[in-house]
């Protein structure tokens, strides 16, 4: 994703998910890296138990939005706010990292980044 498209993508995430700035996303656990649905794992895939889980596609704004909706809807209701907060935090800090991540990986990465940025 082009760096010039990030602000629009952040706005889209906030509009669709209702995600706004957060002072208190859950914080515990280590991060996992991207695993794609075809089994290719460019990074560590520890913790990714479901190879068929939907993944994020940051190729275009449209594919990002579509995949965010799909990945978010795969979660139980009680985890969706944390997912939204994690996506926002990752996009603020390491947007390129989102590509290929499952919901489980987004949550773990968000927790890790929250700990790191809040001195946890």
What labels would you give this structure?
4 helices; mainly alpha; 120 residues; disordered N terminus
Written overview of the protein:
With 120 residues, the chain is mainly α. The protein has a domain of 83 residues. The chain is 48% helix and 0% strand. It starts with 5 loop residues before the first helix and ends with a helix. The N terminus is likely disordered.
Tell me the layout of helices and strands:
Layout (H helix, E strand, L loop, with lengths): L5 H12 L43 H13 L3 H17 L9 H15 L3
Helix pairs in contact: 1-2, 1-3, 3-4
Question: Rg to the nearest angstrom?
Answer: 13 Å
What average pLDDT do the residues reach?
73
Helix content: 40-55%
Shape designation: globular
N-end to C-end Cα span: 30 Å
How would you sum up the major sheet? Answer: none
Poorly predicted segments: 1-8, 14-48
Q: Helix tally?
A: 4
Number of strands: 0
The ordered H/E elements are HHHH
Query: Strand fraction band?
Result: under 5%
Structural class: mainly alpha
């Amino acid at each position: 994703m082009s760096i010039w498209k990030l602000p629009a993508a952040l706005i889209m995430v906030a509009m669709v998910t209702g995600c706004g700035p957060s002072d208190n996303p859950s914080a515990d656990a280590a991060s996992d890296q991207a695993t794609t649905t075809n089994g290719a794992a460019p990074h560590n895939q520890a913790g990714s138990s479901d190879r068929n889980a939907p993944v994020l596609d940051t190729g275009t704004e449209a594919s990002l939005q579509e995949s965010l909706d799909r990945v978010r809807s795969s979660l139980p209701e009680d985890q969706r706010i944390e997912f939204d907060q994690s996506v926002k935090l990752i996009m603020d800090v390491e947007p390129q990292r989102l590509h290929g991540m499952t919901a489980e990986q987004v949550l773990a990465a968000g927790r890790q980044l929250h700990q790191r940025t809040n001195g946890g």
